[in-house]
Each structure stands twice: as C-alpha cells, then as structure tokens.
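Incident review: delayed structure delivery

Summary: a single-chain prediction request sat in the queue longer than the usual turnaround. Root cause was a stuck worker, restarted by the on-call engineer. No data loss occurred. The affected request and its eventual output are reproduced below so the record is complete for anyone auditing the incident later.

Affected input:
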Amino acid sequence: MTAEQDANDQIDARNPDPVADARPDSTTAMPDGPLPPDACVPMAIEKLANPVFDLTPNGMGWVDGRDPATNMLSGGPFPIISANPTGVTPHSAPNKAWFGGASGSDVTPAKASLTDTLHQDFAIPAGATNVVVSGYYLVGTNDVTTSVFDTFSIDLVQTNGTLIENVLTLSNMTSASTFTAFSKNITANVAGQTIRLRALSINDDILHTNFFLDSLSVKATHCP
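Output delivered after worker restart:
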C-alpha cells in the first residue's frame, strides 16, 4: 500500500459519506397506530336557538320585553313572535316577529311612547374568527315618511344591555313592503363572550309603524 492510499483511507474513516448516512435504514420500524389527524376546518355555525321563530313552543329561545307597569306586551295585543297579522306573509312560515303594533294613544292610560323588545343570549367560542348577523325585515307605516317618529334597531349588546355594535337601524322613513335581506359582519371582538342579540322598537303617541323580522341568523366561524 502506498503512502497516498493509506492517507486516503484515514480520511474516509474520519469523514463517512454524509449522503450514505442520510439514507433510511430499511430495517427501521414505522410507528404503530394511525397518523395524527389534520387540524379541524373552521365552519360558520348558527348560534341562535329558533332563529326563524317557527319552533314550538311558540317563541322558544327568545325573551319578549314587557311593560313593567302592566306586565303585558307594550306594543299590541299579540305576542311579538306569532303568525299575526295574517295579512303579512312571513319569510319563513308560519311565524314572524312583529314590533310596533300600536302607538301610545292606543293603550289605556295613554302613553307618550311604546317600546317592544325581543332578545336572546348566546355564547361565542373563544376561537371564533368571524361573526355575521343576518336576516330579513319588512316595514309598514301609518306615519309620514319625511321625519323620524318611530324607530327600530337590532344591536349586539352585553347581557347587562351595554352596546357592543349596531346591526340594523330602521324607522318610519325606511318603508319596505316586502321582506328585505340584511347582513352585518361584526367588527367588535366578541370571541369567548356570552352576548345578546336585541331587537327594539319605539313608537311615539300616534300613527304607529309596524316592523317585522324573520329568518334571523347569528353565525360564528370556528372549529366545531
């Protein structure tokens, strides 16, 4: 053996082939059991109970506002969630939510205004990335349409009533003779909170306005 060959053999012994070392050993056992599942796929999931108002018992999942003086619904003779009045075709049968069915002069004793409210509390998961409120409204008024006298709003609020974000605002000036779609992406960060969707109408003392809601939805995007 020459001196050059002996030196090369010593170099090979000190520096094994890195490519050869990286090749897998065909005798190495694979891990037992299935591979870990992929991460979940976020979905837009409904958070309201009875969002279309049609489940039984009537009004399930919702809380009607009541006049504290009389313990009766303030706006009219019917519950807010019902099939009345029959002259208005619901967006999803048989029920709809009817606000502002009367004015202050329609009750005894007469009042300067009447308020109707409807609300539902629900939880938004901590990992939610998007919340969308949508639905349909219809407005018919006996009032003039040149100034605001009767109002309606849908809001996201804390369960103590503190406003988080307005979703929809209507009045006697926003007449809509057929059910009209609305949708609002919520910009406030409500992930991980229990919050309230509240609908509220205020009619003044004369010439009431009827506000109708149907097919409401609050969808939060998160892993199921």
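Verification: The CA atoms of residues 104 and 111 lie 4 Å apart.
Action items: add queue-age alerting; document worker restart procedure.
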